[in-house]
Design brief:
- The protein is α/β, with parallel strands linked by helices.
- It has two domains: 2-167 and 334-364, Quinone Oxidoreductase, Chain A, domain 1; 170-311, 3-Layer(aba) Sandwich (Rossmann fold).
- It is 27% helix and 26% strand.
- Helix 8 links the parallel strand 14 (256-261) and strand 15.
- Helix 4 crosses helix 10.
- The longest helix is centred in the middle third of the chain and has 13 residues, at 169-181.
- The chain is globular and about 60 Å long.
- The two termini are 17 Å apart.
- The structure holds zinc ion (2 copies).
- One zinc ion (ZN) is lined by residues 40, 42, 61, 168-169.
- The site of one zinc ion (ZN) has 10 residues, from helix 2.
């Protein structure tokens, strides 16, 4: 079919809506008519850092929409089903079956390279290949091609216009709390410090509300205000003489039982580990360029644990329905983090996110 997609023609270029050709679905594939697509920081960093030969390409990886067509072997979703799209995973390899879909052996090709396993692209533009399949979807497109593997079916009649971010940023932040921190909990007085409270960090705070005593570290006042609305204590490191000492003081002298970094910054990761309590756990979530310097004696003597996680170790088919249930019960209050934009304003929405004017822009188709 011919559809309209926001195409990037070279590294760092603006998004431009173009008529593109989308393939018919192969046996395991589906086509989804988009209702909303969240804009995630990863869309922007990938646009700005991939090599020129990986363009032109269609990005977008927080899509929610209605199944329009299904391939001949698809059994898990049907035409008309509302779905939220997430990371793709083969479901067959040793990592998929034992470690979770985020660690699929085929994740690079399924999610980042821009073509299928056989090297074909799902899009063409001006009769030339156009890279797609970003996070198995490339959902900055009126119609997007995904698979039944990365489409999470939600209840019939669900309003999808603000649900795109559940496929990545909301799931990543909240999944970290549900899948990594909660199983390691010690007591009701456990503390959690989140470094960097954009959409991922705020989703973590939203999921942790009422379970942990929470703290938010960020330089931007508007983000700290959102964190405070989610029950966190705000800490602006620009106003702190010694951030590590301040966090220890705020956590009864012990340091944080849990910490999450969403910044990917070298200095922040170092401080996060320094400000951890004995047997505390620090989770690295960011796709940053940081290399972190650690005090090995401090880590060893205090039993500190430093773990990384993709998408908060979530299986989208489990974590997304759980978060929707929590949201309906008032236990996951992320809706007011969203600012909706008509799709034509994609570049303005990105500029507003980068300047800090909005937290989570969502394009509405
Ligand atoms: Zn993302
Ligand atoms: Zn796999």
């Amino acid at each position: 079919m011919i559809t309209q997609a926001a195409v990037v023609t070279e590294p760092g270029a603006a998004f431009n809506f173009r008529d593109v050709q989308l393939d018919d679905p192969r046996p395991d594939e589906i086509i989804v008519k988009m209702v909303s697509t969240g804009i995630c920081h990863t869309d922007i960093s990938v646009r700005d850092t991939l090599p020129a030969d990986m363009f032109p390409r269609v990005l977008g990886h927080e899509g929610a929409g209605i199944v329009e067509q299904v391939g001949s072997a698809v059994t898990k979703v049907a035409v008309g089903d509302p779905v939220i799209l997430s990371l793709d995973a083969c479901g067959q390899c040793a990592n998929c079956t034992s470690k979770g879909p985020g660690y699929c052996e085929n994740t690079l090709i399924l999610n980042y390279m821009g073509f299928r396993m056989d090297g074909s692209t799902t899009y063409t533009m001006d009769e030339a290949p156009l890279h797609g399949q970003f996070l198995g979807q490339s959902s900055f497109s009126a119609y997007a091609l995904a698979t039944e593997r990365n489409a999470v079916k939600v209840a019939p009649g669900t309003d999808l216009s603000r649900l795109g971010p559940y496929g990545c940023s909301f799931m990543t932040g909240a999944g970290t709390v549900l899948n990594i921190l909660d199983p390691k909990r010690g007591s009701d007085t456990d503390t959690l410090v989140v470094y960097g409270v954009g959409a991922v960090g705020l989703a973590a705070l939203a999921a942790a509300r009422g379970r942990y005593q929470t703290f938010a570290v960020d330089l931007q006042a508007s983000r700290l205000e959102a964190a405070v609305r989610l029950g966190a204590t705000a800490i602006n490191p620009a106003e702190s003489e010694d951030l590590v000492a301040q966090i220890k003081e705020l956590t009864n002298g012990h340091g944080a039982n849990f910490a999450i970094d969403t910044t990917g910054k070298t200095a922040v990761v170092k401080q996060m580990v320094q400000a951890l309590a004995i047997k505390g756990t620090a989770v690295i979530l960011a796709l940053g360029d940081a290399t972190a310097e650690l005090d090995a004696v401090d880590v060893m003597m205090n039993g500190k644990q430093i773990v990384g996680a993709i998408m908060g170790d979530s299986d989208p088919h489990q974590t997304i329905p759980e978060l929707l249930r929590m949201a309906a019960a008032g236990e996951f209050m992320v809706d007011d983090l969203i600012t909706a934009y008509p799709v034509a304003q994609i570049n303005e929405a990105i500029a507003d996110a980068e300047s800090g004017k909005v937290i989570k822009p969502v394009l509405v188709w």
